[in-house]
Amino acid sequence: MSPDALATTSDTLAWLAVVSYVVAATLFGFEFAYRTRWFGVAGLTVTVAGLAANVGAAVTRGLAVDRVPWGNMYEFSIIVGIITVSGFLVWVARRPEIRPLGVFVLLPAVCAMALGGLVFRVPAGPLVPALNSRWIVIHVAAAITGSSVLCLASVFSILYLVKERLERRQRPPAPPLVAGAARTADRVEVDQAVARHASIWSRLPSADTLDHLAYRTTAFGFPIWTFAIIAGAIWAQAAWGRYWGWDPKETWSFISWTVFAAYLHARATAGWRGRRAAWLSIVGLATLLFNFYAVNTVIVGLHSYGGT
Amino acid sequence: MAVELRPPTARPDRKGSGRPGLGDTLRQAWREYRSMRTALVLLVVLAAASIMGSLFPQEGLSPQRVDLYFADHPALAPVLERLGLFDVFGSAWYMAIYAALLGALVACLVPRTRALVRVLRSRPPHGGDLARYRTRASFTTTAAPEEAMAAARLVLRRSRYRLADRDGELAGEKGFLREAASMLFHVSLLVLLVGLAYGKGYGYRGQAAIVEGETWANARVGYDSFSSGRFFGAGDLAPFQLRLDDFTNSFYPNNTPKEFASQLTALDLDGRELQAQRVAPNRPMTVDGVRIFQSDYGYVPVVRVTDAKGRELLAPQEVLTLRDPATEWSTGAVKVTNATPQVGLELTMFTGLVTAPDCPGGAPFCNDPRLIRPVLVVLAYQGDLQADRAQSVFTLDRSRLEPLGDRPVLLVPGQSRKLANGMTVSFTDLKQYSVLTLARDPGVQVVAVGAGLLLLGLVPSLYVTRRRVWVRAAPDGAGGARVELAGLALQGKPAFEAELARLAEQVQRGTLAPPRQ
């Protein structure tokens, strides 16, 4: 196939992946809401098909431009889809009961990919000279993997916060000190309303499980992120003559690193594990998103070639 | 995030006196300082402080943008400068935060090292009542209790447990790598920082522009910008020269830059050739410990000016121009100070001038970035150049100048044209210059070692779990034994349950086939 035909195929496959993920997310959503196993199995099938299309999109794009397919934000977004969805599938293989959570994983992945396709899409093309190095293979691959895995961990942390709040509320309330009749009736009504409203979220795995998922996923992503920063430093040393210069991208990757390091410490600190740790993970997510979207487009720096 | 400054909690005084003295308060504060909570809060504070460094333009990154900020916010900028917000990462308060963090780290490492050594020297502790452990396994075997214990010993030793054999109980312990690796990780942060500080103190970094065919000497005056560490002396510059033999740049068919490279030859001070290399982005050259990087490039039109009678006012001059990377056209200025009145020329150099209708968007003219049809556009001014005042070499100060002639003069290489006052401008030659970054960082190896150790320590510190196993065997009354295993894992409990079950199975198998010894 000619490069143009490959590029067109890549675009088609990328949209096919997005559509598959949307369908799969809907199916997982139904499984989550109605507890019908078949929805989940169908969702899983569509997810795997979508992942195949996603990988195909990256491969054809790479062939079309004759380099690694992660040279700009659009291509980066495609790879984010692959890593996040694969990460989720690995967890499902190990713990099939978390399958309905697919809806919470696929939707962010779809958003990232759609945003990449709609806002940051650039035609297939070569790299600027500064990016022309074999370190782009290592550094950027590690950065995508690390940040995607850490984002996945933060999704688990968000779900943890939801479920933890619910579990706290559902604990049997202490009996009122003064048992007024009207008051008790009110109370029952409120409790019922809470239970009705909360019913769907109570289907999340236990808060402990979600906390464990979040921690294990972070523990996997953090060393990769560390490696990505170090690989970036080695590349910077080769390309710019300094391994660290507080360029905005470097600064923000350091901020993310620090926040997730704080999360890992918080998990082992009394008074911080649980809710506060989960909030740190969410702050970490915000820094990762800021680093990718805002630093690449708004803030001027040496890494600002990401967008176009 | 609030820093928790809790009052010291009451704890039994060693001397038994009633209220805690100053010593206790300090001890308590010290304990608080080296606690994980302090490290955690400092990490969060460090992250928040780093955000400041990306919100405001930084002196070290782009001084021009700091100047711009001063121009845009004349009232606010001086305040921000006093607060160090234009140099966050070099400011006293930023240093204070990471110094506090490193202090806490060291303060925490000392007792941790002591604890690790103590634990490594001691033997695994007694299990006590095995029934109280959550992770347990048991089985009966036809082998005698002693044989069962021997089998367990073999299995645990093979699994690299440190063993203690006492009172009919086998205690095993492993996973110290977690703590050791975690300490390695934290120590490597210190190594990293030492390397960073050393490199910063004894290194330097500068930029220099060399025109094709010329030789540049590595001396302080040769640099257009230069920054060096506190301990870097002017005499520390390596004695060599660089000759730019050739500069090439190329573009993709869609006119985006493909490559640019300098063919450089390094010479010693006597002009002997040391080494030659093609330096391109991501392909630096190392001369005498100094790394030389390709940073930028530009065009150098050579311009000659004569008066109406043909006398030379300006001998052929190489005019450095500033290249706009987006359009690839370059701008520069020529100052003819010995003309009366003085004459200034504003130059715009096109690498390939294209005129309407071949330009996109109906523009009257545009530029092809490839060097295919160089054209020099000259706008002349006369009056007072104010050359005695410090000013940019790339632009004219037009405050006391008035236009000379009503239209620009266009020149191709080799061409001469008359200006409105009878002077002649000649575009005699076109060269290119290369901007190189030269840097020396003696701390980089130390930093590399630190980074390597950091990675080496990180993975085991997250994945190794510390665990203890106890095994006991009691006669079951029928000549065989009842073997009980119990275990405790500080991390990774689900995986440990599977591990204990596997250990039990191995021991059971071992009792059936007595160990060959």
Q: How far from one another are the termini of chain B?
A: 62 Å
Radius of gyration of chain B: 37 Å
What structural class results from the helix and strand content of chain A?
mainly alpha
Class by alpha and beta content of chain B: alpha+beta
**Strand portion of chain A:** under 5%
Largest interface: A-B, 50 and 48 residues
Give the helix tally of chain A: 9
Set out the fold topology:
The complex is a heterodimer of chains A (308) and B (517).
Chain A: H1 3-34, H2 37-65, H3 73-94, H4 102-118, H5 135-170, H6 181-198, H7 207-240, H8 248-266, H9 275-297
Helix pairs in contact in A: 1-2, 1-4, 2-3, 3-4, 3-5, 5-7, 5-9, 7-8, 8-9
Chain B: H1 22-33, H2 36-55, H3 63-72, H4 76-82, H5 92-121, E1 135-141, H6 145-158, E2 162-166, E3 169-174, H7 176-202, E4 204-211, E5 215-217, E6 225-228, E7 241-251, E8 257-267, E9 273-279, E10 285-287, E11 290-306, E12 312-318, E13 322-323, E14 330-336, E15 342-350, E16 353-355, E17 365-367, E18 375-383, E19 401-403, E20 409-411, E21 416-418, E22 424-440, H8 444-463, E23 467-475, E24 481-489, H9 493-512
Antiparallel strand pairs in B: 1-24, 2-3, 3-23, 4-6, 4-22, 5-7, 7-8, 8-9, 10-11, 11-12, 11-22, 13-14, 14-15, 15-18, 16-17, 18-19, 18-20, 21-22, 23-24
Describe the 3D structure:
The complex is a heterodimer of chains A (308) and B (517). Chain A contains nine helices and no strands. Chain A is 75% helix and 0% strand. Chain A has helices at 3-34, 37-65, 73-94, 102-118, 135-170, 181-198, 207-240, 248-266, 275-297. The two termini of chain A are 26 Å apart. Helices cover 31% and strands 32% of the residues of chain B. Chain B contains nine helices and 24 strands. In chain B, a hairpin with a 5-residue loop joins β11 and β12. In chain B, α2 (36-55) packs antiparallel against α5 (92-121), α5 (92-121) packs antiparallel against α7 and α6 packs across α9. In chain B, 31% of the residues are buried. Classes of the chains: A mainly alpha (308), B alpha+beta (517). Chains A and B meet through α7, α8 and α9 of A and α2, β8, β22 and α8 of B.
